[in-house]
């Protein structure tokens, strides 16, 4: 009997030791380090679990330096940026660009084909005409819009080796719908290269959950209720090395004569999209996919958007319509989305 008790006690101590060791392994030593900056025209945050505070700050600095570099190259509003020069030299001459800018432009052209033209990197002139998000927004005349619509030929964007030219003076590049996602993806690349296994990036609503949390549980990324001036949550999705990006009509807008004009321009009409949706959230492996597909699917509307997302591997979506109904792509229907707002109805 005493022998059995000794054996039981020994087994208990071994089990306890293994539990403690496992717990220690699952929660590695380190500390959270967080930095916030205003870049890419938005409030941006990087939060990582690093070995030390000093190491974490250095790694985050490296990531933000890369983001600032991307902005200085690809912003259409920064004088002498590569995209600014392309727009200034439209229909005149080619402008040499760096490898990353060239890649983003070429990828934007590829996405145009994938989305049947609903994602368009050549909307710069129309975006400037409307001025949504600036101090002087403007509802243009139909004739003004029509003139710029005639210039929206994706084939007018010419690429020769490492140089780019727009073959139409009425057309301008605006990479805002893809460059922010690229900046998030580049930040993730740097964090991984520096050995970071757990972190969280939020660039103005472009979110990336890196790995799991230190306790090995997935992140829960909140999705905002798509109502103007609402700070409430619609729901949340579990995320482990995934991007979560939302586009909606409540983000940037202005009101004139009691009409709301939001920032998502439909390249078919030149006016803000009259979609039957309030928002689209994309869950994907890259933020570039999230940027592009959240915009394109919003313009598509519910029926076409649902059909489209099922054809794209590795991409899931949450659709919210004007009737406060929520529709999920098939990959989210089994625990991939948690509703947190009783004002909305989840449609099966």
Automatic annotation (TrEMBL):
<dbReference type="InterPro" id="IPR003374">
    <property type="entry name" value="ApbE-like_sf"/>
</dbReference>
<feature type="binding site">
    <location>
        <position position="177"/>
    </location>
    <ligand>
        <name>Mg(2+)</name>
    </ligand>
</feature>
<keyword id="KW-0449">Lipoprotein</keyword>
<dbReference type="GO" id="GO:0016740">
    <property type="term" value="F:transferase activity"/>
</dbReference>
<keyword id="KW-0460">Magnesium</keyword>
<keyword id="KW-0479">Metal-binding</keyword>
<comment type="similarity">
    <text>Belongs to the ApbE family.</text>
</comment>
<dbReference type="Pfam" id="PF02424">
    <property type="entry name" value="ApbE"/>
</dbReference>
<protein>
    <recommendedName>
        <fullName>FAD:protein FMN transferase</fullName>
        <ecNumber>2.7.1.180</ecNumber>
    </recommendedName>
</protein>
<keyword id="KW-0274">FAD</keyword>
<dbReference type="InterPro" id="IPR024932">
    <property type="entry name" value="ApbE"/>
</dbReference>
<feature type="binding site">
    <location>
        <position position="291"/>
    </location>
    <ligand>
        <name>Mg(2+)</name>
    </ligand>
</feature>
<keyword id="KW-0285">Flavoprotein</keyword>
<keyword id="KW-0808">Transferase</keyword>
<dbReference type="GO" id="GO:0046872">
    <property type="term" value="F:metal ion binding"/>
</dbReference>
<feature type="binding site">
    <location>
        <position position="295"/>
    </location>
    <ligand>
        <name>Mg(2+)</name>
    </ligand>
</feature>
């Amino acid at each position: 009997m005493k022998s059995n008790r000794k054996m039981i006690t020994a087994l208990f101590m071994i089990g306890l030791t293994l539990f403690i060791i496992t717990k220690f392994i699952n929660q590695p030593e380190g500390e959270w380090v967080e930095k916030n900056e205003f870049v890419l025209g938005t409030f941006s945050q990087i939060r990582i679990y690093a070995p030390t505070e000093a190491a974490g700050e250095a790694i985050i600095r490296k990531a933000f330096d890369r983001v600032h570099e991307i902005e200085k190259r690809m912003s259409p509003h920064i004088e002498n940026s590569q995209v600014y020069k392309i727009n200034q030299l439209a229909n005149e001459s080619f402008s040499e660009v760096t490898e990353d800018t060239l890649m983003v432009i070429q990828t934007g052209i590829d996405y145009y084909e994938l989305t049947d033209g609903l994602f368009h990197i050549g909307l710069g002139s129309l975006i400037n005409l409307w001025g949504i998000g600036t101090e002087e927004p403007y509802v243009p005349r139909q004739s003004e819009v029509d003139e710029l619509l005639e210039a929206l030929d994706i084939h007018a964007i010419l690429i020769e080796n490492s140089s780019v030219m727009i073959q139409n003076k009425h057309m301008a590049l605006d990479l805002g719908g893809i460059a922010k996602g690229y900046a998030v993806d580049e930040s993730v690349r740097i964090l991984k290269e520096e050995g970071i296994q757990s972190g969280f990036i939020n660039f103005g609503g472009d979110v990336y959950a890196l790995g799991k949390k230190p306790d090995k549980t997935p992140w829960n990324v909140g999705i905002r209720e798509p109502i103007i001036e609402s700070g409430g949550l619609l729901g949340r999705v579990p995320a482990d090395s995934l991007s979560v990006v939302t586009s909606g009509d409540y983000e940037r807008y202005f009101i004139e004569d009691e009409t709301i004009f939001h920032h998502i321009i439909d390249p078919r009409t030149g006016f803000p999209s009259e979609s039957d949706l309030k928002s689209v959230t994309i869950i994907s492996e890259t933020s570039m996919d999230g940027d592009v597909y959240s915009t394109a699917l919003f313009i598509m509307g519910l029926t076409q958007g649902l059909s489209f997302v099922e054809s794209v591997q590795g991409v899931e979506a949450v659709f919210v319509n004007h009737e406060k109904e929520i529709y999920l792509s098939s990959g989210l229907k089994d625990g991939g989305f948690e509703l947190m707002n009783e004002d909305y109805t989840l449609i099966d």
